[in-house]
Amino acid sequence: MTSTTTSEPWQTVDFSTDSPKILVAEDEKVLAINIRYRLQNLRYTVPDITDSSEEAITKVAETHPHLVLIDICLSEKINGVQVADIIQNNSDLLVSYLTEYSPDRTLDKQQLTEQFSYILKPIAERDLHIAVEMALYKHEIENKLEEKHQQLTAVINSMGCAVVVTDINGCVKIMNTVAEQLTGWKQNEAIGKDLTEVFSLIDQEINEPIENLAKQAIKANKILSLPENCILITKDGRQIPVGDSVAPIRDDNGKTTGAVLVCQDITKRKHKEAQLLRNAFYDGLTALPNRILFTDRLRQAIERSKRHNDYYFAVLFLDLDGFKAINDRFGHQMGDNLLVAIAQRLESCLRSVDTVARFGGDEFAILLEEIKDVSDATNIAKRIHESFALPLYFDGHNIICTVSIGIALSGSKHNEPESLLRDADIAMYRAKRQGKARYGIFDEAMNP
Q: Are residues 247 and 329 in the same domain?
């Protein structure tokens, strides 16, 4: 048999002995002696007998028995059931009641419902033997199950992610400490509750609650991944992005007995992904879209113009006039500050549907969507020039930086973003050669 460790003063109960120790607490002296004799005849050790509730509690601490046989109606201030509660609250000792049969006894109906938890008087030796052996065997099995449960708990608590085990109905059975910390629920609060109550999940993409994932995995009979945009609503209402999987649990016979949800807080991963996305599509200095994102939006505009005959757009290509001289005179830090301020001014000149991007260095591009004709584009160019006429103040210096602008209008000959950008670039250089701080509109005569 196994060993079970309990807290002081009850010490360790060793089931490895060939002769389990049994303490008898019975207020009928003759019956107590008779029970002791029968137990010893059955090769059990009876370290003591007592007729006192208080003494029974003391002798448990002194003798460390495997089993306590206690009269349910000890004639003391506290009855046998109360004594048993005290003993079991302080240890995992096994207690069986000695009682007389009475169909009208309420206490019997409430307390003696578990098989082999009681022995009826008068006691036959065979019945006593069976009851004791079954009680000891049942206790041994319970200890083994508890040992396995503790081993499982130790394993899942050592994991760095949240683990929730459910039964076949999708109700919580076990939660590890990480799951407690993540959800805000304690295991003793969560046990028996539907998974969706403790692990409340929302699909952020459609803003709808996610149904019980344990039930879904059990029904599908396979491992399921959490939705990509899965948000956990904690007990105190916080929202945490989570990810991982849920899988059905099967016993040795392949029968599904429940499910296990494994997940983790992916807030840092989401932030990293967002940062990588920004690095891929946005300029690190000005936070404007970069050439890649601008080209993608321009390609979408071209496709829209193919589907809708009344959809027009324009591309403006901008190059700062004399920016190198400013950089050389005031330094690169001043140059970077100037580029940031220029980016903000360009944004202030546009509508929300338009896109301004930095292509690198002192080059910018603008996509004007849903325009009526060329005048919409030229009006934006004029507005930009007026804005740039106002000086920028940096470290005691008033700096005026002008810009040359080339304009290319959408048309049937433009099937690729590069052709529009090329035409706008040609128009910009024509404007720069004509005196800078100007804008020019591309026409076919500009082609070399």
A: no
Evaluate if pTM is beyond 0.85: no
Are 269 and 240 within 8 A, CB to CB? Answer: no
Are both 164 and 296 inside the same structural domain? Answer: no
d(CA 30, CA 51): 11
CA atoms within 13 A on the CB side of 293: 18
What tens digit of pLDDT does each residue of 55-112 get? 878 888 788 888 888 887 765 555 556 777 777 666 667 777 787 755 544 444 444 4
In a domain, 424, yes or no: yes
Do 338 and 419 sit in the same domain of this protein? yes
Using DSSP's 3-state secondary structure scheme, residue 171 falls into strand
Longest dimension (CA), the chain: 126
Spatial distance between the Cα atoms of 278 and 293, rounded to a whole number of angstroms: 10
Structurally, how many domains does the chain consist of? 3
Picking from 16, 19, 83, 95, the residue whose alpha carbon sits closest to that of residue 55 is: 83
The predicted-structure confidence for 191-240, as pLDDT tens digits, reads as follows 999 999 999 999 988 889 999 999 999 999 999 999 888 999 999 999 99
CA distance 200 to 210: 8
CB 436, CB 404: distance < 8 Å: yes
Segments of 347-438 assigned E as strands:
355-360, 363-369, 392-394, 397-399, 403-409
**What are the structure tokens assigned to 54, written together?**
């208080």
